[in-house]
Amino acid sequence: MGLLSGSQRMGAAALLLAVSTILSRLMGLVRDKVISWQFGAGSEADMYFAAFVVPDIINGLLAGGIMSITMIPLLSRRFAEDEDDAWRFFSCVFSWMSLAAVIVTGAGMLGAHQLARITAPGFDEAQLARLTFFMRIILPAQVFFLCGSCMTALLFLRRQFRVPALTPLIYNGCIILGGLCLPWCSRQLGLPPQWEFEGMSGYCAGVTVGAAIGAFWLPWRVARGGGLQLEWRLRHPLFLKFLLTALPLMLGQTIILLDEQFMRVFGSQLAEGGVSLLNYARRITQVPVGLMGQAAAVASYPFLVALVTSGERERFDSTLATALRASVGLIIPCALWLGLAAGPVLTVIFQGGRFGPSETLACTPLLQIMLAATPFWIIYMVLVRAFYANGDTVTPAVTGTIMTVLVLPCYQFWAVPHGAWAISLVSGLSVSAYVLWLMGIWRRRMGGGAFAGLGGQALRVLLCSLVAALPACWGQSLPLAEWLARLTGSRPAPLIEALGLLGVSGSLFALSFALLSQRLAPDVLAPLWQRLRRRARRQEAADRPDAPDRR
Questions:
Q1: 355 phi and psi, to 5 degrees?
Q2: pLDDT tens digits for 421-478?
Q3: Rounded to an integer, what distance in angstroms lies between the CA atom of residue 354 and that of residue 503?
Q4: CA nearest 372: which of 266, 255, 292, 285?
Q5: Whole-angstrom Cα distance, residue 229 to residue 431?
Q6: Residue 103's CB: how many other CB atoms inside 10 A?
Q7: Which of 155, 352, 389, 513 has the CA that lies 20 to 30 A from 106?
Q8: Which residues contact 407 (CB under 8 A, 6 or more apart)?
Q9: How many CB atoms lie within 10 A of CB 504?
């Protein structure tokens, strides 16, 4: 089967990727739940999360989204013009990516101890030695990620989205299995101490195995079955154009890309558990951002590219404005309620085992602070694709890099002395400032059509959310534990109490917000109501006595 022969409807592809994103986020929470249960917010968990700083930077430096944004358009045109030459171009990119991945990863493994000192300046010598060990296990995963990204680009070009959708699920599944099974297996096999997978080392091994299977082997096998032609090649006339287009994305280490790494680097200078608590809070914060932002970005980007190509500027602005209003209109109530219910949410997701009530109490304000910036995360995910659709990869990279340089002293000289809450605050403020800067640049260059009605809708949705928060607060203050104790004769477990509070509070908030938004911001839930009405009409038609039998 030829490379370009596969086809799949865009809506089905977007739905598949959205479902994959949901499952991946949930598996990520399950993975961190297992880690928090076993290790809590302690030194071992801190070192595990800190071990990802260098690998993630390498991945962002060499990949940085370049496959989907720069390689696919060039490769698509070459396949349309000359298939044999397209394979030569692909081989050139793959050869350089493989070579760079092996060299950079190898250098990272050799200098792991020195890199550990830089990325975790607050760790003592024993922790640095352990961190170095973790990094050397995790770093080879980047070779599989980076080489696999080339194969994944081919699959996207063929519109084969099933394997890319499986990649994060396999990856997270291998991490969980590695952490739970490898220590037990090494003990059963009687391996010498230096080969035992104790502590977090099993999870580290799962990272590399998951990358090898999910990110490289499976896409490679499917691409090979679709006619993959690969050779070692370091020259091609189109490679320089590809490199010049990709360089801004590769070198522009923006505040968005480095946000998580900053939390790990500067969190290492806090008391034990600082890195872990910041990671757990950020993990929950990024779930609604990933779900809503990914859906808006996946749904809007192909249309934005097509509208730019056809020169339909008014429709481009309208499509972008619709995507921004829809995503912001959903994230504001979600973030506000999550912040209101932060304690019960953390209790349900993480509390248990070595993650006790004190860790929940310490993590709650971090989660609330991070949630305040989620609307700007959503705007970024949609707006940056508008820049890319116009062929501008430089502006987001340059402005983001400048913001990164400006914010570093704030982290080191203000946030670290004040603690984890200050690191969360600097993170949220820097991301918000960066996105506002991008919005200002876009307005100056392209006009304000893309933001038409965004501010007004955001204010109306915020008002609805604040009013809906009143009955939700009342529901959350109910003495459910005492009531259940009277009914059952014993006080319920914290998980049961938290689930009950979330159920009552969430139901009151959702009902109140739905009623208020119907009047003040009807566009927010309009797609939901339309879908429900269509389903009701179909059901009504099917229930008629004269309806045809479709069995």
A1: -100, 95
A2: 999 999 999 999 999 999 999 999 998 888 988 898 899 999 999 999 999 999 888 8
A3: 26
A4: 285
A5: 42
A6: 10
A7: 155
A8: 255, 262, 426, 430
A9: 18
